[in-house]
Amino acid sequence: MANQRAIASHLILSVSRIQQLQYDGVIEKDASLDCARLAYIRWLRERISSKSSSDINNERARLVYHQANLAALEEETRRSKLIPADDFAKEWEEIVSTIKSKMLTLPKAASNICIGVTDYQEMERILKALVHDALDHLSNTNR
Q: Which residues lie closer than 8 Å to 105 by C-beta, 6 or more apart?
């Protein structure tokens, strides 16, 4: 029977760690150095094997979870409920570009039509008509 200090020295552990291992039932309190060493090695092997199988199972579960998410996204895309972000960005750029070009033509069109108009209400009517015409054109543009 070896004391805690001898077992600690033999296993290259602290005395408090040996006390904890004895409290947990890993090493018997009256164990010899050989029995303590074998018990400690068995305990380490069990820990490693249970940890690695647990890690593998966790990784498998994680993989299955992400595969299910990808399958759901692909299904939503096939049903046209999702639009790929790149397609959406390209379409939105085209829409904004069309609106910008149409709006930038308004000042020139207004200046050509409003030459000589001195009545404020008439000028407002002309500008509103131009804006409504531009908006109608944009809403009827086929993509």
A: 134
User: What does the CA dihedral 134, 135, 139, 140 come to, rounded to 10 degrees?
Assistant: -30
Radius of gyration of the chain, Cα coordinates, nearest whole angstrom: 39
Q: Distances in Å between the alpha carbon of 32 and those of 27, 68, 116?
A: 10, 54, 113
Distance CA 84, CA 73 (A): 10
Kindly tell me the sign of the dihedral angle through the C-alpha atoms of 34, 38, 43, 44. Answer: positive
Mean pLDDT of successive 10-residue stretches along the chain, which has 143 residues: 89 93 92 92 84 78 94 91 90 90 89 87 91 86 55
pTM above 0.70, yes or no: no
